[in-house]
Amino acid sequence: MGISDNDVQKQLRHMMAFIEQEANEKAEEIDAKAEEEFNIEKGRLVQQQRQKIMEFYEKKEKQVELQRKIQSSNSLNEGRLLCLKAREDHIRNVLDEARMNLSKISSDQARYPAILKGLIMQVCAYFYTNSLNLNPVQGAVISKKEGIQSQ
């Protein structure tokens, strides 16, 4: 007994529908797997780029902090230099004033021997406790009788 053409057509349609359904299910599985792999790769790339960005900004923060420290140090050093300059200027002014007063005192014959004697006493006291180099003024002579004389 033979199968009618109608039954064959029906079986073929049924087999084709089954194959098509299997193909659609397989295509959906492939799409789902591709979507999953895409999302995994996208997540990995996003995380990788996020890490690079974080490292970049951490590096920038360190550079900014270093620049801030350098600037702070430079400001502090500039302040110290200004202070040292002011101190040096003040010392220079005091020394200039002392030189002027010393030249005035050395020309005052009445006070000069007593002042020089007092200074020598201070030097001796200082020398007694510390090491000291003496640079006498040219023209000053010390005698036992008169104390200090100027020639």
Please give a handful of descriptors for the protein shown:
2 strands; 2 helices; about 150 residues; two-stranded antiparallel ribbon
Describe the structure in your own words.
The protein has 2 helices and 2 strands, in the order ααββ. It is mainly alpha-helical and 151 residues long. It folds into 2 domains: 75 residues; 43 residues, no CATH class. The relative contact order is 0.04. This is ATP synthase, subunit E. GO terms for molecular function: proton-transporting ATPase activity, rotational mechanism.
Task: Give a summary of the structure in a few sentences.
The protein has 151 residues and is mainly alpha-helical. It has two helices and two strands; from the N terminus they run H-H-E-E.
Map the helices and strands:
Elements: H1 5-107, H2 112-129, E1 140-143, E2 147-150
Antiparallel strand pairs: 1-2
InterPro entries: ATPase_V1_Esu
Coiled coil: 9-36
Keywords: Coiled coil, Ion transport, Transport
Tell me the series of helices and strands, N- to C-terminal.
HHEE
pLDDT < 50 runs, ≥5 residues: 143-151
Strand arrangement across the biggest beta sheet: 1-2
Largest sheet: 2 strands, antiparallel
Based on secondary structure, the structural category is mainly alpha
Query: What average pLDDT do the residues reach?
Result: 87
Percentage of β-strand residues: 5-15%
Percent in helix: over 70%
GO molecular function: proton-transporting ATPase activity, rotational mechanism
InterPro entries: ATPase_V1_Esu
Pfam family, one: vATP-synt_E
Protein name: ATP synthase, subunit E
